[in-house]
Amino acid sequence: MSLYLFQILNGVGLGMIYFLMGVGLTIIFGMMNFVNFAHGAFYALGAYACYVVMSITGSFWAGLVLAPICIGILALGIEKVLVRRLYAVDHSIQILITIGVMMMIREGTLLIWGTVPKSIRVPELLAGIVAFDDFVYPVYRLFIVGVTALIGIGLWLLLEKTRFGMVIRAGSERPHMVALLGINIDKLFSMTFIGGVALAGVAGALIAPIRGVDAFMGVEALGIAFVVVVIGGMGSFSGALIGGLIVGLVQSFTSGFWPAGTNVMIYSVMALIIMFRPNGLLGRA
Amino acid sequence: MQNTTPFKTYAMGLIAFVILLPLLIHSQVLATEILIFAMAAIGCNLLLGYSGLLSFGQSLFFGGGAYAASILSINFDVSLLTVIGFTLIVGIALAVLVGFFSIRRQGIYFVMITLAFGQLGYYAAFLAEDFTGGEDGLLDVPRVALKLPFLPDVHFDTDISFYILTSVLFVLSVMLMQLVVNSPFGSVLQAIRQNENRAEAIGYRVKLYKIAIFAFSGAITALSGALYALMLNFAPLSNIDIEISETILFMCVLGGLGSIFGSIVGAAVFLLASDFLSELWPRWMLILGFLVILVMLYARGGLWASLMIMLERAKEILGIKEKHNV
């Protein structure tokens, strides 16, 4: 029994990280009709930013807070210089250009930090394990579940219950109408892009102590993020949540009996789901 | 975009190209590599440039072809033609499979599904150690001889003989693809790329056309993968990596979408640049990423189209005005 609980918790923790990746991708797409292939690269950069801040200040907490802010500032710059010009162009061009961005970020990280993976130690407070009877579990993994759940709830409240969220949702349905109503759509797009990319930064920083930090984590995460949104349905907040959890749980349970086959399993589940629901579980047609 | 240049001129141009290439760059191996990747880039261009399908699954066909040829050459005493035939069958089968699933959706979903299949292929190859050698890849892949009845066997162990083999296959497959894109079938694909709903409404079975072009793309890409493995005598796992899809895509975009000659130029420029720059600076891909952004922002026709425009300008300046109909 406790083995299953262990795997469920692991799966939920991973799933919530994937949710953070997927939701940024999906909101940016839903709102701005923009396909961001550099999303995984920003995730890797988030992990590096956390590593850098931590090696300067010595505090993991500072890294966790500052990493997304750094990534957000970078996203602001990229949006102003590049992404802004791409809203009107064809998806395939957006994809090719953001792959260019992805390559530049990947090579840049290799240039600065080299090919040797970096590791991050979690602070004392989170380093231990919790025990209920015979069930033990690392505190840090519980912390991930908690933090990501808080971010998820916060994001949901922001999107569903505030005026700002209302404008974003309206903007993702009818951007031109929203612009006609006197709302600065450029500013809104720019904020959405920064927010979505910063979420990828958070995900990268959170996973860093478990996975380690290297330049190739971006590609790996990009593939997973796509699976999440394909399963959940592009442009859907709850789709990203369900997709993330499904992928996390599949990964966690497969690693119980077939550790080498986790990735094959994830992609096979995706193939199965799109066979029966081509729009994803919660996607709009 | 219908090309009016006569078929014969095309063939002559290609043959001249494969003869001049090794003389110009002084390396038969690099020349072989250029032809191989040009074929892969053309495979990508058939989908993206001619049919509007951006596929990230090309690594699956390339790696699949490499494994198919290697497994057959290592384990069985076969003739080269058998290896090529088997490679083509594997490439077509993989492409039809990926095509069948991915064309259920359009646009961004299509891209993500092909990418997911590419990843699936990579992890599957990683797992299937008995067949693919897993992380180590397949070593000592022999270049099997061409066995023809009543004739002595033809071996391809030297660089020059392998270059000739590659050239022959290159010219044949490029001519075939040129025929395909200029055929009525190719025109329907153009129509689908420009307005899918309209093509469907006119009565074309859009899905069948898409699967068919996938099959062509899979075949030529698998063939290039097979030649690559034979050239290296080695089929590494990185052949089926997503980075191969990226590389192929870049060559295709760099050269110019919707132009077979563009893909050849793209592959040549990419490999020559990588040969030259990678020795100067291991992170040269940084520049490449920047270049791709620039091409997509300012010169979407790619290098081939830019070259053509420059030629036109030069002609105008020199006063050699040609009457032409676009």
Structure description:
By secondary structure, chain A is an all-alpha fold. Chain A has helices spanning 2-32, 39-57, 60-81, 91-113, 124-127, 139-161, 163-173, 175-180, 185-211, 217-232, 237-257, 262-276; strands spanning 129-132, 135-138. A two-stranded antiparallel ribbon of chain A has the order 1-2. The N and C termini of chain A lie far apart (40 Å). The model of chain A has no long low-confidence stretch (mean pLDDT 89). Chain B has helices spanning 7-25, 28-51, 58-75, 80-102, 107-127, 129-132, 159-182, 184-194, 196-202, 206-232, 242-255, 260-280, 285-298, 302-318. Chain A binds chain B through residues 29, 35, 82, 85, 91-93, 95-97, 99-104, 106-108, 110-111, 219, 223, 226-227, 229-230, 234, 260-261, 263-264, 267-268, 270-271, 274-275, 278, and chain B through 48, 52, 54, 101, 104-105, 107-109, 111-113, 115-117, 119-120, 123-124, 126-127, 242-243, 246, 249, 253, 283, 285-286, 288-293, 296-297, 300.
Sequence of strands across the biggest β-sheet of chain A: 1-2
Q: What gross morphology of chain B would you assign? A: globular
- The structural class of chain A is mainly alpha
Radius of gyration of chain A using CA atoms only: 19 Å
Residue-averaged pLDDT of chain A: 89
CATH topology of chain A: ABC transporter involved in vitamin B12 uptake, BtuC
Flag low-confidence runs of chain B.
Answer: none
Strand content of chain A: under 5%
User: Cα distance, first to last residue of chain A?
Assistant: 40 Å
Counted beta strands of chain B: 0
Shape of chain A: globular
Main β sheet profile of chain A:
2 strands, antiparallel
What secondary-structure arrangement, pairings included, does this model have?
The complex is a heterodimer of chains A (285) and B (326).
Chain A: H1 2-32, H2 39-57, H3 60-81, H4 91-113, H5 124-127, E1 129-132, E2 135-138, H6 139-161, H7 163-173, H8 175-180, H9 185-211, H10 217-232, H11 237-257, H12 262-276
Antiparallel strand pairs in A: 1-2
Chain B: H1 7-25, H2 28-51, H3 58-75, H4 80-102, H5 107-127, H6 129-132, H7 159-182, H8 184-194, H9 196-202, H10 206-232, H11 242-255, H12 260-280, H13 285-298, H14 302-318
